[in-house]
Amino acid sequence: MSPSVPLQEMIRAIRSARTQCEERGVIQRECAAIRAQFRQADNGGRSHNLAKLLYVHMLGYPAHFGQMECVRMIASPRYSEKRVGYLGAMMLLDEKQDASLLITNSIKNDLSNSNQYIQSLALCTLACMGSAEMCRDLAPEIDRLLRASNSYIKKKAALCAVHIVRKVHDLGELFTKAARSLLTEKNHGVVHGAVVLITELCERNSETLERFRKTVPDLVQIMKGLVISGYSPDHDVAGISDPFLQVRILRLLRILGRNNEAASDAMNDLLAQVATNTDSTKTVGNAVLYETVLTVLDIKSESGLRVLAVNILGRFLLNNDRNIRYIAMTSLQKIVGTDHNAVQRHRGTIVDCLKDQDASVKRRALELSLALVSASNIRSMMKELLSFLSSCPPELRSQTASGIFNAAERYAPSQRWHIDTILHVLTTAGGDVRDETVPNLIQLITNTSELHCYTVHKLYRALLSDISQQPLVQVACWCIGEYGDLLLTGECQETEPVQVTEDYVLDVLETVLQSHMSSPSTRGFALTATMKLSTRITENVDRIRSIVSIYGSCIDVELQQRAVEYNALFKKYDHMRAAVLERMPVIEKNSQGHTNGETIKESQTVKVKPGEPQQPANQVCDLLDLLGGSEQPLQPSPALGSAAPPIPVSTPNTVGGDLLDLLGGLEPTPITPVATVTVYEKDGVTVTLSCEKQSDSGLTVTLTASNSTESDIRGFTLQAAVPKSVQLHMKAPSGDSLPARGTAKVTQMVVLNNPNKVNLKMRLRISYTSQGSAVQDTVQIDSFPGLGQ
């Protein structure tokens, strides 16, 4: 290919290449020819060669050797060369390269040129790739051009000033007066540039924001002129007069009216006029309406205007365009907490969006539907949500199940309805529920004694039909073990009569134990249930003994340990088996709620009624030892009316001592309470810190996060930084989501090693996503509890 081929010929040759290797060969030959011509002193085709080089750059090939040629062409007096040179500078140069500083003087000279098109080239280049140093040097020239008489130049200068303010915040004050004067211009392009510049100035400086609040009446007049103006061929887009300028003005009004009563009152009438007069059948009109809605919801607007804004979003939900439906639900999600009743009117439309084919629309509809659940609509909304759960994509099942659990716990009309709802979720999506679901449901069942018979019958039938849902199987096994006597002898009129025998129940539990679908935890539930049935049935105790003995040599250590302990109960402590395996007491939820699925209980005093027979003291102590002991040795009280001295607890000759030897000779040790301090508390998110000293220089810090808001928090992460001389190791957190109302917590262990004994400090970065918004915050920790700092 000849070095002097035109640009069109080079493009044709590149496109005709059949392989990538052939394309590279064409480009290498052309680049070699361009380099050779760049080295010539008198080259008349410089703009032609640079244009070809820019095309090569657009294809992704290296073109950096043309940077200096761009600098030379910018300094050329010819407009055709200057135009290509500026274009090359915008594409090949950036503020990090030293060559960009060489064009500063050329840009300054061109800003003073009498040709408006050359001035425009300089302004565009500065706005595109101007560094902070260039902006400081050329800012006075831009301020001068903002006051020029040429509208074309003023429009370009305003946009260039926006770039300068973003690069150097301190220069914003220089353009304040000129920006305000541009609002009086008739040219829409100049006004548009002025609004963008004022918006940038107000976002950067609070004092400038207060100063520009005086321009609200001027902006309102400009906006009214656009709304009521007739057809203008220069600015009309689908029947809307200059929608781009309208959107920019609405955004600026939103910033000026935020947290300001006077500014909000001045724009209320205008916003109502825009909301009622804008055509919503076209995408352009919907864009203006959406900005209007965002402005109404962000300022201190009247209640009637807010209802109008919510109704506009409700109309968006009926639009065929999924993008419009998505942004409508995103906006409704942000205001459902403050305008709940207004959003509630569109509940039916929102629920219908759960059937949408688009995954993003489904997710937004699910979040909004869960936020709309209340005590008045719990039954109807739960019916829709359960129907959605049975057909929703796998990635949404966990979120749906969690939302249903939270809503049922908060608004359940009855305990039976609550239990039925949770069982329905476990039957449908048991593999996608959180770990704390099983203990929470067990606690609920325990507290509803009048429903024990109904619940155990229902769970037994569920176990007969499906043992693949592990959480459901675990709860069913627990209930059969606790209330097996009600299953065998109880008459439940609320369920269909089913003949249940001891053999049938044991067959089901054996099926769970032997199933390949059962997890080790589920087998533990089933084995314990089988053992508990030994005190609730009479004819199959030997079969239970044989089942338990089989697992004494199980490969799973946890299951093996349980089986060995249960065998010991059968052989050596059969007299106390009934006491050990008696029905669990009512599980009470403490003020801290559930922690990782377990309920923490305060130590309770056991009261003995007069006349009740008491167990021998050694048996009582053995029972305490088997269940884990207490914080301090307990002595049983003598029978009422007896003057017998107290019996010592757990001597080596007692049965309890033998049992402790069987379990490894462990003795209960007092638990020292760990001091906990709150290091972060904001927007419903609380992070507490506790310390445990491991050695002279070692320290384990436990960070616990909870969420007291009404919505779930996702993507929760904690990052820690300490002084350089301190070694830090962060272990894996217990999770990355914080359920609403503190139903579960996230725990993060941090191990610190401070060999130099420096003053220990830690900085935490907290990041999470709440209601679709990303939040990041930082907190400094200067003292640690228990270290004496």
From TrEMBL:
Membrane topology annotation: Peripheral membrane protein
Under InterPro entries, the record lists: Adaptor_Complx_Large_Subunit, AP1_complex_gsu, ARM-like, ARM-type_fold, Clathrin/coatomer_adapt-like_N, Clathrin_a/b/g-adaptin_app_Ig, Clathrin_app_Ig-like_sf, GAE_dom
* A GO-annotated cellular component: AP-1 adaptor complex
On whether Transmembrane helix is a keyword of this UniProt record, the answer is: no
Q: Which residue ranges does the record assign to the GAE domain?
A: 672-785
Question: Where would you find this protein in the cell?
Answer: Cytoplasmic vesicle membrane; Endomembrane system; Golgi apparatus
List where Polar residues composition bias occurs.
591-606
What are the UniProt keywords, alphabetically?
A: Cytoplasmic vesicle, Golgi apparatus, Membrane, Protein transport, Transport
Which positions, given as ranges, span the membrane? none
Entry keyword annotation includes Transport: yes
Which PANTHER family does UniProt cross-reference here? Answer: ADAPTIN, ALPHA/GAMMA/EPSILON
Give the record's family classification: Belongs to the adaptor complexes large subunit family.
Name by which UniProt lists this protein: AP-1 complex subunit gamma
Q: Which organism is it from?
A: Maylandia zebra (zebra mbuna)
